[in-house]
Design goal:
The protein is an alpha/beta fold. The chain has helices at residues 26-38, 56-69, 80-90, 108-111, 134-140, 160-170, 221-231, 238-241, 258-268, 271-288, 323-333, 359-362, 387-396, 409-424; strands at residues 73-77, 98-102, 119-123, 145-151, 173-177, 185-186, 189-190, 197-201, 214-218, 295-296, 304-305, 311-315, 347-349, 397-400. The two termini are 19 Å apart.
């Protein structure tokens, strides 16, 4: 009975919840109380004024992020999603334009162009790094292409050299979704500065967070200015700020609060230690799993530093064991994390569904009714569009979060034991 799989009624490898991954503490509490005591929870004005750029905490947070990554400009926003939308506006995306996007990421990485009437054009991904494939990008470029929206998926930077070369050749902007990659690097350059604009996420399950929020980095003065206007009611200040290119100068309220900024500032100061903890846990997990032929650990691009938002592995389909059945059996052996009980065991078969299979793409209905930018797309949003993405999602990719800093060696040992137990009993899987 002891070796009977839990999915078949046997005892679990572990019943006790894994320790919560909590990065906030006394430092954040002190920073929040400083804001509370000031009585100023937000200090933006949506009109021409020195506070158009935000309050003291927002500006201090931005300065700290710019210094940490060596950026000329850092801009705080209320989310990574808002940042991606603002980036589309800042580079001048308009109806009729096309933006090449990855098919495998959180949906915001693909839908941002739609807010300005542009059409997302999907490119496939590299089979071993899961980042957008330069060859697929090259095949998708048309005279209407305006930009490439890349994603540092799972924390690994994209192929900077090849994609920069494509962008230079065709006069395209590169927007980098670095939501999962704070502290990742390619050579001597940080993620977030590998394109024209980089966007980080600060929502609650990222490396560091302020509940919600986003930080944008750029070394381009004009783009930084346009981003700051789009963030905060641009239409009210274009005359006073000397803006003559009024394209997309209709602003939003993408503003970060003083409390969020104070937390984001405190969290940034913990990033190095939290990254090192992830690297240590990845190394331990991969050492313990050495020789487990059914699973290939993540490949790290030459010259890159991986931030490991998730540990994305490849299942060996040649061994004749169904990936989904295996993952379901391992999940049955393990608990969820404290504070995230309702999210289930943090082990998945695949990642997110290929974005182009979402109903808005399949039915070409998103924004604009009969003028919807999806209606003009030359792509067929259906199975077969991106074969590598589909193979990864439906057959080969396994993702897990058992490398977060709260995990101890003993916790990881339980995970490895669960993998081994299920593998030993694989003939009993459906």
């Amino acid at each position: 009975m002891r070796n009977t799989l839990a999915i078949h009624g046997g005892p679990k490898v572990r019943e006790t919840l894994f320790p919560a991954h909590v990065t906030v503490g006394a430092e954040e509490k002190a920073a929040v109380m400083k804001v509370m005591d000031s009585g100023i929870l937000s200090n933006y004005l949506g009109a021409y004024h020195e506070n158009f750029m935000g309050g003291a905490q927002v500006r201090e947070c931005e300065a700290r992020w710019a210094e940490r990554f060596g950026a000329k400009h850092a801009l705080a926003m209320n989310s990574n999603t808002s940042g991606l939308i603002a980036a589309m506006g800042a580079i001048g995306v308009v109806p009729g334009d096309e933006v090449i996007v990855t098919a495998y990421s959180m949906s915001a990485s693909a839908v941002a162009p739609l807010f300005y009437g542009a059409t997302p054009i999907f490119a496939d991904v590299e089979p071993e790094t899961f980042c957008i494939d330069p060859e697929s990008i090259a095949a998708a470029i048309t005279p209407r292409t305006k930009a490439i929206l890349v994603v540092d998926l799972f924390g690994l930077p994209f192929d900077v050299q090849k994609i920069r070369a494509l962008a230079k050749k065709h006069g395209l902007k590169i927007i980098e979704d670095a939501a999962q990659a704070p502290g990742a690097m390619m050579g001597q350059e940080y993620a977030g500065l590998l394109g024209d604009i980089g966007v980080f996420s600060l929502n609650y399950h990222k490396h560091i967070h302020s509940g919600e929020g986003g930080i944008l980095l750029t070394n381009d003065d004009d783009l930084a200015h346009r981003l700051s206007l789009i963030r905060n009611h641009a239409e009210n200040v274009t005359a006073q700020t000397g803006v003559t290119n009024l394209t997309n100068m209709i602003g939003h309220n993408f503003r970060m609060t003083e409390i969020e900024a104070a937390i984001a500032d405190s969290q940034l100061q913990k990033l190095d230690g939290l990254l090192q903890a992830r690297w240590d846990r990845v190394a331990y997990f991969e050492k313990k799993m050495a020789g487990f032929d059914a699973l290939a650990v993540p490949k790290v691009r030459g010259g890159a530093v991986h931030a490991y938002y998730q540990h994305a592995c490849l299942w060996n389909t040649q061994l004749g064991v169904d990936r989904n059945a295996f993952v379901n059996a391992v999940r049955a052996e393990l608990p969820s994390f404290e504070l995230r009980e309702k999210e289930g065991v943090k082990l998945g078969a695949g990642y997110v569904k290929p974005i182009y299979l979402l109903p808005v793409f399949a039915n070409r209905v998103s924004i604009g009714g009969q003028y919807d930018p999806l209606k003009s797309s030359w792509q067929n949003y259906s199975r077969g569009l991106c074969p590598v993405v589909e193979d990864l999602h439906f057959n080969r990719l396994i993702t897990h979060e058992f490398i977060v800093p709260s995990m101890t060696d003993a916790d990881i040992d339980d995970v490895v034991h669960a993998f081994e137990k299920v593998w030993d009993q694989r003939t009993h899987l459906a």
